[in-house]
Amino acid sequence: MQFSFASLSKRIRLFHLQILSEVYKQGSILAASRSLHISQPAISKVIHDLEEYFEQPLFIRTSQGMTPTDFSLMLNKHCNELQSNLHHLVDDLNTWQMGISGKVTVGNMLSASAEFLPKAIIRLKQLAPNVAVSVKVGTNDTLFPELINGTLDIMLGLLPTQAEENLEHIELYDETLSVVVGRQNPIAFSGDVDEWLRAEGITWIIPPLSSTAGQAAQAFLLNQGIEVPKQGIESLSVLTNLTVLLESNAVLLTPKTVVDRFVQLGILVELRQSSTSTTCGKVGYSIARNRLLTPACQRFIDLLHENTQP
């Protein structure tokens, strides 16, 4: 069967694409039925009609749920892109009718969590209170695919050392590293911090070594003559790291902007920081190439540039 734009547009409805994506996402017709508030027979009929039209199975039915076929994976990729464009259309229509409104979905890495992102969100809500903001935390490895397929509008944090083919990376400022401990930690009152940091038995908390920040942390430790901890803690969770620091004698090595506020409040004590000449990377944002930004996302980006200094 030869497909054409005309035949697809006549046979496939947006409603069909929404059901296909939801069954893929939920892994079962029952879960998709609950999520969409549509009866199971109605969903089953749509899947059956799509399989009949494309002459391809979309899912393998098992006792564990619905497993997508290779054809379904390909089709779902395009469904995500189409739905992303439709979300942008909705934003544009609402903006046209109501002024500044819409939604910005932000992927966020550790380095943007403490001040950089919150300041931009606060300013955006002051200027455009009708804009909804959704933030998803993760690493480049997990969030870049979502940025490419349109689930995310923009990604903030340490930029990758190698550019992604389908993404555009914009630098905003250089990030440095900071070594901090809880205020109760004996190292905070020690006269010889270097000796303490090189002592055996120190529990180090560092970003995951697979991340850009983790690789910078590894290089910093080696430059200080400290062996990279094999039994340390790899964590991107600000709250987890803070709790561990306050309830133990652990030492945290992390992007400086993540902990600056806690140091200023006297909760943490900074022991060391990397020099401005040895940064841990560039902080900025990434957007998908060849995809138009929504008005809300463009306004958010404008505010990021207004707050380029951490």
From TrEMBL:
Record Gene3D superfamilies: 3.40.190.290, Winged helix-like DNA-binding domain superfamily/Winged helix DNA-binding domain (1.10.10.10)
Domain HTH lysR-type: 12-69
Cellular component terms (Gene Ontology): cytosol
Superkingdom of the organism of origin: Bacteria
Keywords: DNA-binding, Transcription, Transcription regulation
A molecular function GO annotation: DNA binding
Listed SUPFAM superfamilies: Periplasmic binding protein-like II, Winged helix' DNA-binding domain
Keyword Lipid metabolism included in the entry's annotation: no
Protein family per UniProt: Belongs to the LysR transcriptional regulatory family.
PANTHER family: HTH-TYPE TRANSCRIPTIONAL REGULATOR YBHD, NITROGEN ASSIMILATION TRANSCRIPTIONAL ACTIVATOR-RELATED
Protein name as annotated: LysR family transcriptional regulator
Organism: Pelistega suis
Upper lineage: Bacteria, Pseudomonadati, Pseudomonadota, Betaproteobacteria, Burkholderiales
